[in-house]
Amino acid sequence: MKKSDIRTFGIVGGDKRQLFLARAISDSCCDVLLGGFDKLAGTQEQTFTDVKTAIFESDAVIFPLPSVRTDRSINTPFSDRTVILDTEETTELMRKPVFVSMRDRFIKAYPELKDAHIFDYAAKEEFAILNALPTAEGALECAMSNFEGTISGSKCLIVGFGRIGKLLAKILSSLNADVTVCARKESDFAYITAFGYKSRDTRKLKSVRGYDIVFNTVPSMIFDKGLLMNTDRNTLIIDLASAPGGVDFESAHRYRLDAVRALSLPGKCAPKTAGEIIKTTIFNIIKEVYR
Predict the structure, then answer these.
(1) Is the overall model pTM greater than 0.90, yes or no?
(2) What pLDDT was estimated at residue 244?
(3) Of 47, 167, 251, 284, which residue has the fewest beta carbons closer than 10 angstroms?
(4) Which residues pair with 10 in a beta bridge?
(5) Considering the domain 128-268 in this protein, what is its CATH number?
């Protein structure tokens, strides 16, 4: 297959991100068939169809983020139907490029597709980098909605100095927040100091005192029962980490801490940008693989 052979994309399932993804692909002069959007059929200027048609009449198929639920069903929030791929559909998917998120989970749900041409767009580095900004902005929106004070002048703790942590620290600092960053690596401590933030060692984090807002970006249990017991009760905790997350929400509730699980922020806060990021990443994969 050549890049020019992919003229029609089937988008199966998803949220607002996939609607903007469809628009972005259409703007690139390709046709799009949307399957699994029963609730929206006839409401927008897009081609809605059933899942089988979207799979069979397309040259490439895109599944959402996340692609599958724990019961093997496709993630279709805009449909009341439970969509589980049948044998005809998986056989058809063997014949064309398939783009998913969390490839291992998708293959576990449909092992018959283990030899298919399946590409994990969410695992690409450019996807993670581009998604960091809408995630950071979404975290700020979450803080502004749940914190009763102003961001300016607030004392904020960011746990983790990866892509999201770096951007979030910059945004909070630009709003005149007092920013402290928890990290582990010496190189991160050097950058934190160079940017003018305060620093703490995550490995030595035994208590969280004197902060208005805490943002966790580390996907491991940092805020366990022990740490939450030593956290100020008026501190807002926002967990941005992907599963399994970094906050023991059951303990947080028990100790009457205000803790918020903020997942999939690009899709909730910036679906247009998130959809365009998916499109850019998938088109880059096509350019690399199908020259």
Answers:
(1) no
(2) 83
(3) 284
(4) 33, 61
(5) 3.40.50.720
Q: Nearest-CA neighbor of 236 among 263, 255, 273, 211?
A: 211
The answer to whether the peptide bond before residue 219 is cis (omega within 30 degrees of 0) is no
Question: Tokens at residue 18, please?
Answer: 């996939």
Question: Which element (helix H / strand E) includes 285?
Answer: helix 271-289
Tell me how crowded residue 7 is: count the other CB atoms within 10 A of its CB.
Answer: 11
- Written as one letter, the residue type at 278 is I
Axis-axis angle for helices 125-146, 163-174 (nearest 10): 40
> Could you read off the pLDDT of 134-169 as tens digits, one per residue?
999 999 999 999 999 999 999 999 999 999 999 999
Note the pLDDT of residue 40.
87
Respond yes or no on whether the N-terminal peptide bond of residue 271 is cis (omega within 30° of 0).
no
pLDDT tens per residue, range 75-96: 999 999 999 999 999 999 999 9
User: Tokens 């509730």, residue?
Assistant: 253
Whether 3-123 shares its CATH topology with 128-268 is answered yes
- Domain limits, the chain: 3-123, 128-268
Burial 197-220 (b: 16+ CB within 10 A, else e): bebbebeeeeebeebbbbbbbbbe
